[in-house]
Amino acid sequence: MPKINASTVAEHRAQQREALIGAAIDILVNEGATAVTPTAVGARAGLARSSVYQYFNSSAALLATVTEEAFRRSNQALTNAMAAANGPLERVEAFFRESLRLGAEGAHRPAAALMSAGLHPACQERLMELHLEQVEPFRAAVREIGVPDPALTADLIAGMLHTALAAADRGTPLDTVTERTLALVRRCLTTGGQHEPRGDGR
């Protein structure tokens, strides 16, 4: 049995599993989905391949878990940000602001790598389900605002988010990208381009 680095065996196993997932995500982002194998992941995490198989019995199992983790970590941050907002417009802004912050940290890269990885159809389907679950609170806020054709409007505004993430990836300062993007979003979602009154007086 490997040396225990936690107060209980359960905590130790949780730490090892987390290390393996982190290693798999790192390999996925930097080397692609085909490089995510038990041997490579174990080596990156500092564990023997036999130890990896205690948690994941195949490359497919690793990728399936990474697919879930690529969204779980971001979803919690997005949920917390939107819960602190007042009103649908502020929830949309919170979704964009937090998405851009997460993007600057590279949180979108695992999902982007998975999208272009040519995964098994079942994994691709789950990836799309997770994406739709992630953006539904944003789409619900757009519907609540009452804009015409809210589904199309949400799709078009989501395109701005993708463009903003790309701009941040290219090195445009995050604050600049965020404030300019939010200004455009407000114009799209308020009547006649006028800003909706805000609780903070801005």
Mean pLDDT: 85
Structural domains: how many? 2
**Which residue ranges are poorly predicted, with pLDDT under 50 across at least 5 consecutive positions?**
192-202
Second-tier CATH architecture of the largest domain? Orthogonal Bundle
What is the CA-CA span between the terminal residues? 59 Å
CATH superfamily of the largest domain: Tetracycline Repressor, domain 2
* CATH fold-level label of the largest domain: Tetracycline Repressor, domain 2
Envelope shape: elongated
Secondary-structure element order, N to C:
HHHHHHHHH
Describe the structure.
The protein folds into two domains: 1-57, Homeodomain-like (Arc Repressor Mutant, subunit A, Orthogonal Bundle), CATH 1.10.10; 63-193, Tetracycline Repressor, domain 2, CATH 1.10.357. It contains nine helices and no strands. The N and C termini lie far apart (59 Å). The radius of gyration is 20 Å and the shape is elongated. With 202 residues, the chain is mainly alpha-helical. Mean pLDDT is 85; it is low at 192-202.
Summarize the structure.
By secondary structure, this protein is an all-alpha fold. It has 9 helices and no strands.
Question: Which descriptors would you attach to this protein?
Answer:
elongated; 202 residues; mainly alpha; 0% strand; Tetracycline Repressor, domain 2; Arc Repressor Mutant, subunit A
Write the layout of secondary structure elements.
Blueprint: H1 9-31, H2 38-45, H3 49-52, H4 59-83, H5 88-104, H6 109-115, H7 121-145, H8 150-169, H9 174-189
Helix pairs in contact: 1-2, 1-6, 4-5, 4-6, 4-7, 5-7, 5-8, 5-9, 7-8, 8-9
